[in-house]
Amino acid sequence: MTHPTKKSDIYSRAKTTADQLRAAIDTTPSIAMILGSGLGAVADELSNPTFIDYKDIPGFPVSAVEGHAGRLVFGELDGVNVVVMQGRAHYYEGWSMREVTFPVRVFSLLGVEYLVVTNSAGCVNETYTPGDLMIISDHLNLTGDNPLRGHNEDEFGPRFPDMSDPYDSQLRELIRTVGSELGVDLKEGIYAGVAGPSYETPAEVQMVARVGGDAVGMSTVPEVLVANHCGIRVAGISCITNMAAGLSGQKLSHDEVKETADRVRETFVTVVRNLVAQIGELS
Ligand code: HPA
């Protein structure tokens, strides 16, 4: 059996992948975006796009979830060089957290400084309604796992990374500004990340509410942990797609999640686009 703390080859694999991507593109992205179910439309707004399917990128996990295109799009959004992940692999599909977060390692080596991460989430805070957008202020890792477990990737960051500002406070302020400039009412709250794939039971939703979660979902936490480890500054936005289990008397379905994400697509794209423009002015 391999010793669990044996040096892993993630750094060398990520470097090979980053070198290959660099050869295929002629710009250096400063912002990476990971777009959740039904929220991939931002990628359609890029100018001079270069599309690269995950299946053609060594080491990239390929998601099988419906509604995810499964490709990287490099391009410019309002003059800012970005790379967009249209679709992402999820832990619940069976990928390890290290595999799920491999793209973030690659982005770090490409020189990405900011990560804008979006997701669909169930509503736990009963003052929110489906269709609301929520600035993620912090998260609760309720997955029982951590992508940084095992050998530390010293090339990327320390063994015990600080997590005291996981969703960068300056970027949160920028999202608030974008919301008020656009007249979009943005909520702000704590994202509880669970492993899935089953939706929560009503008792689990009550637990999340009691420990301080405002929304619950099955993604984001692994990528944000790795981004923090690499020193990438994170901005997170959840699209609240449904009332969490037991709060509405209705059964949950992926169709409802996709329908709500579709309904808010335009507002969502505008918020993300304006956020990118604002982040572009920071650098
Ligand atoms: N629970 C977990 N993940 C989700 C939900 C939910 O209610 N809605 C969208 N993703």
Distance between the termini: 46 Å
CATH topology: Rossmann fold
Unique bound compounds: hypoxanthine
Q: In the CATH classification, which architecture applies?
A: 3-Layer(aba) Sandwich
Which class do the helix and strand fractions yield? alpha/beta
Principal-axis shape equals globular
CATH class: Alpha Beta
Q: What is the succession of H and E elements?
A: HEEEEHHEEHEHEHEHH
Number of strands: 9
Low-pLDDT segments: none
Query: Mean pLDDT, nearest integer?
Result: 91
β content, as a range? 15-25%
Please characterize this protein's 3D structure.
This protein is an alpha/beta fold and 283 residues long. It has a single domain, classed as Nucleoside phosphorylase domain (Rossmann fold). Helix content is 31%, strand content 24%. The protein has helices at residues 10-24, 97-100, 102-110, 169-182, 202-210, 221-230, 254-263, 265-282; strands at residues 31-35, 47-53, 71-77, 80-86, 114-123, 133-141, 186-193, 215-217, 233-243. Strands 5-8-7-6-9 form a five-stranded mixed beta barrel, surrounded by four helices. Strand 7, helix 5 (202-210) and strand 8 form a beta-alpha-beta unit. Helix 1 packs across helix 3 (102-110) and helix 4 packs across helix 8 (265-282). The N and C termini lie far apart (46 Å). The mean pLDDT is 91. It binds hypoxanthine (HPA).
